[in-house]
Write a structure and sequence with these properties.
The complex is a heterodimer of chains A (88) and B (477).
Chain A (H helix, E strand, L loop, with lengths): L4 H7 L9 H15 L29 H5 L5 E2 L2 E2 L8
Antiparallel strand pairs in A: 1-2
Chain B lengths: L7 H9 L5 H19 L2 E4 L3 H14 L10 E5 L26 H8 L3 E6 L19 E2 L2 E5 L5 H9 L4 E6 L5 H7 L2 E4 L19 E6 L2 H11 L26 E5 L9 H16 L3 E5 L4 H19 L18 H12 L2 H14 L5 H24 L2 E5 L14 H6 L5 H6 L3 E8 L5 E7 L5 H13 L7
Parallel strand pairs in B: 2-3, 2-6, 9-10, 9-11
Antiparallel strand pairs in B: 1-3, 4-5, 6-8, 7-8, 7-12, 11-13, 12-13
Classes of the chains: A mainly alpha (88), B alpha/beta (477).
């Protein structure tokens, strides 16, 4: 089976260098061969009822905004900062 | 006998009768952990607040009255379980400097029970691996023989407990990651029913499979730890109600133990088969009834496991983008470039392989062939387990096909994945399973017996494991 590692990596937002592509391709082919012989049991019954989730409501948190922001690689005025997304 | 060699229940009695203090105990265990560190590499971070916790425990004990059950006992925590204010790396460059702003529910319960968190243990990166050698902080070595791996992914927790560098430890088990390293190191490793221990604060790998498990040097110690972390938690939507603990009695009389022939096939080494069958015979002599049972989907379960776990991992790990926390690559000019470069530089090869596999099986044209079939197989497997448990109380099986994994040996990922055949079926079924030492191989490494129980039958399973211990089971039978 052909597996296009470059395309999958793009979907997963990863770069695989040209040097590493053959190695990843070989591993992925082996793994895909290992997992590919699953029987087709048919039916859709495995898709169960959706799990009941708790309501998504705003609550007071025991963790302050400042504490949450401490792990941010870059923040500006209490907001996460990223490279510029729009030209102006 | 040194303090660090004693069991948790012996230490608990000593602390209460003032034969030692929590501070003395911490110094002894921490000293042992630091002494072993250059040889085993079991820890990533030691907790510099541990002494304060031990002093608090001593104050509580001095006051008398109700002393919390784990008061003063040094416990190691796997480094994918969040500890407020204490670095939690998942053994990844991606989270190398991550300091959680909250603790996992399991950690909060430990602290409320008076435990002293000694440090964070080494592991495979994001718990993906079988030999604790895929992480960014180096491999973990087996205390029984450092030429061998401590197993994975909770290798640091198992090595720390087996070597005396912790009295108890928390690990995580997605496809065998508590049971397999415990068996390699000669410890007891318990993976509870899915939902019995809250996953809140456990950094996600595969959410439908992840569980927090307990590692100790005997079944009673593991039972003590599990009873603290087994609690309902509204923060985990998959939690199940707490099962109140019973005193272990260890009787195997009349217990029906199923032996699935598919988990003893030619793939399992002769010495592992022989050690596990000797353990089964020992249980039979102690009054258990042994039956041959069938688990026809066992070998297909490994395939289903790698499809489902990788699919969930590729989704869970999409959150690491260098924006809110974790590693961010330098010199990026656009957000898309920043996401890609941060993930490429922050993740190691094994994590990338799993993300690629997960992305592949979920991609257009592959979903039906891989993911749907895997999910259907999982359901079929659960039915096979249900059938077995109509005529048996427990299942006995090996933990891993071989005794130990040599460091540095060339291994293809697909071969390493296939070796998880004995542990992943109960993972897919959400069933509780425990690994208990049952002898040694010719290379001197411990071998583990695996007992699998009914869903939510955690107490009964630990009682059967205790029965095996009482019957004389262990590393040096």
């Amino acid at each position: 089976m052909d597996i296009n590692v470059r395309k999958i990596a793009e979907l997963a937002s990863l770069d695989i260098s040209d040097d590493d592509i053959p190695r990843f391709e070989r591993d992925m082919k082996d793994i895909a061969a290992m997992v590919s012989e699953l029987p087709d049991l048919g039916g859709e019954s495995f898709i169960g009822m959706p799990m009941e989730l708790r309501s998504d409501i705003v609550e007071d948190s025991a963790v302050s905004r400042e504490e949450l922001m401490k792990n941010a690689p870059e923040s500006v005025k209490g907001c996460f900062a990223v490279p510029r997304t729009v030209e102006y | 006998m040194k303090l660090y060699e004693k069991s948790a229940y012996e230490i608990a009695a000593m602390l209460r009768s003032r034969k030692c203090s929590a501070k003395e105990l911490l110094h002894d265990v921490m000293g042992r952990a630091r002494e072993l560190q250059p040889r085993l590499n079991a820890y990533i971070t030691f907790n510099d607040q541990a002494e304060n916790a031990a002093e608090n425990a001593d104050r509580l004990i001095a006051k008398g009255g109700d002393i919390p059950p784990l008061c003063g006992i040094p416990i190691a925590v796997k480094d994918n379980i969040s500890t407020k204010g204490l670095r939690t790396t998942c053994a990844s460059k991606m989270l190398e400097n991550y300091i959680p702003p909250y603790s996992a529910t399991a950690v909060e319960l430990l602290e409320a029970a008076g435990a002293v968190i000694i440090g964070k243990t080494n592991m495979d990166e994001f718990a993906m691996g079988s030999a604790s050698d895929t992480g960014a902080f180096g491999a973990v070595y087996n205390p029984a023989d450092t030429a061998y791996s401590a197993g994975g992914s909770s290798g640091g927790s198992a090595a720390a407990v087996a070597g005396g560098g912790a009295v108890l430890a928390l690990g995580s088990d997605t496809g065998g990651s508590v049971r397999q390293p415990a068996s390699f190191c000669g410890a007891v490793g318990f993976c509870p029913s899915y939902g019995a221990v809250s996953r809140f604060g456990l950094i996600a790998f595969a959410s439908s499979l992840d569980r927090i498990g307990s590692i100790g040097r005997n079944v009673r110690d593991v039972h003590m730890l599990h009873n603290i972390i087994n609690a309902s938690d509204i923060k985990d939507v998959t939690h199940i109600p707490k099962k109140f603990s019973k005193t272990l009695c260890g009787s195997l009389k009349g217990m029906r133990i199923g032996v699935p022939k598919e988990l003893f096939d030619e793939y399992i080494s002769d010495e592992v088969k022989s050690a596990v069958m000797n353990a089964v015979k020992l249980m039979e002599r102690a009054g258990a009834i042994i039956k041959e049972v069938f688990l026809p989907s066992a070998s297909a379960a490994v395939k289903a496991y790698y499809i489902i776990s990788s699919a969930e991992a590729s989704s869970n790990l999409a959150r690491y983008d260098g924006v809110r926390y974790g590693f961010r690559a330098d010199n990026c000019t656009t957000p898309a470039e920043m996401f890609r470069k941060s993930r490429t530089e922050g993740f190691g090869d094994e994590v990338k392989r799993r993300i690629l596999l997960g992305t592949f099986v979920l991609s257009e044209g592959c979903f039906d062939r891989y993911y749907k079939r895997a999910a259907a197989l999982r359901q079929k497997l659960c039915g096979e387990f249900d059938d077995i448990f109509t005529e048996c109380d427990f299942i006995a099986a090996p933990v891993y096909p071989n005794a130990g994994i040599l460091h540095g040996a060339e291994r293809k990922p697909a071969e390493l994945y296939a070796a998880d055949i004995c542990t992943v079926p109960s993972s897919l079924g959400g069933l509780p399973a425990v690994s208990i030492p049952c002898g040694r191989a010719g290379n001197g490494l411990p071998i583990g017996l695996q007992l699998i129980g009914r869903r939510c039958g955690d107490e009964e399973l630990l009682d059967a494991a205790y029965g095996y211990e009482l019957a004389g089971g262990g590393c040096d039978v």
